[in-house]
Design goal:
Elements lengths: L2 E4 L9 E7 L6 E2 L4 E6 L4 E5 L4 E4 L8 E3 L3 E6 L36 E2 L7 H10 L7 E2 L8 H7 L20 H16 L2 E9 L1 H18 L5 H13 L8 E2 L4 E2 L6 E7 L2 E7 L7 H17 L12 E5 L18 E5 L3 E7 L2 E15 L5 H16 L2 H4 L1
Parallel strand pairs: 14-16, 16-17
Antiparallel strand pairs: 1-8, 2-4, 2-7, 3-6, 4-5, 6-8, 9-10, 11-19, 12-13, 14-15, 17-19, 18-19
Helix pairs in contact: 1-2, 5-6, 5-7
Amino acid sequence: MPISVVMPALEMAQETGKLISWLKKEGQQVAKGEPLLEVETDKAVMEVEAPGDGILAGIKVREGDVVPVGQTIAWLVAPGERPPAEAAPVASATRAVRPAPRAAAAPVAVAEPSTGAGARISPKARRLAREYKVDLNQVRGTGPDGVITTDDVLAAVEPAAVPRPVASLPAAEALSPVARLMAERTTQSWTTTPHFYLARDVDASALNALRARLAPPLEKERGLKLSHTDLLVALVSRVLAKHPRLNGSWNGSSVQTSSEVNIGVAAAVKDGVVSVVIAKADKAALADISTQLREKAERARAGRLHPADIAGATFTISNLGMFGVDSFQAIITPPQAAILAVGRIADRVVAVNGQPAVRPMMTLTLSCDHRVVDGAQAAVFLKELAEAIVEPDDLLC
């Protein structure tokens, strides 16, 4: 019996997905769990696995096409078996088709475009319309069932509203999917989230000593190279568990707290940054945190992320210390309430018991959403985190 390959829902409230590439060709044998295609969502480009064993057949979607979630885009069939012919191929990257009615085998026509404020509109398209002051009454929706898409909004933008390259400059560089998504999300956060910042210098002597003590046995027994980021994920998550507001989110009108502490760690990839997620980090062993971070960061750099690799983060850490950065202010990842920016550990002259001394110091900068967290709550969290870094054995040993 043929197995349907559908456009998956990889995120909450996702309505469509964009096919970036097929990782198998039509007629090739595919095993269940094997990477089959790459899909772009609002967060990243992710790898989707085959739902079963079979021969890839009846591909209905081309690279670049945008497809509604749940629509059949191909089939996996047995040798000699033919795929059902029940859905029309997608017409283009800016227009998706509806699935065919179950009672009919004929292709389904694309819905007529709809116009007006009463038409459905995707959240991203609505944000763009506000940004470029587009009158939605004048926009014709070309998405499924006439939904207004981002392409529809951009097509309605006045030419003068969109920045154009100066004639004397080289042609504008096309953004990769990851870079474009990062640009959209940081713009959304920066323009809609009321940020405030707290910074604190912390003595990392004990953190260095703990790493020096734990790293050799972990490398010998499990082949792991323990990093400061591994230790920070473990410490931050355990302190965060006592501060639900910092681990919460803004849902549009109220604060939503989470029962889990899922730490996102910003990882540099070609043309951008993605956050890989350590689920339930406050309950994870240090070795497991280190293993997961390595594996997920490698998949991110290779462009082979799994949906679970980037899903569900409740708090993010961005560490630029390895690049020699002393301190910086990070932009919050919506709908999270905060992000921690970590600078390098470097020797500085500081006062110790009233006397000058050289200590390995690091600067932590906490960015917070003022709708969710106030200054006092953020300050207490940062204070307890600094204390945990000064005495990490109390939480990790």
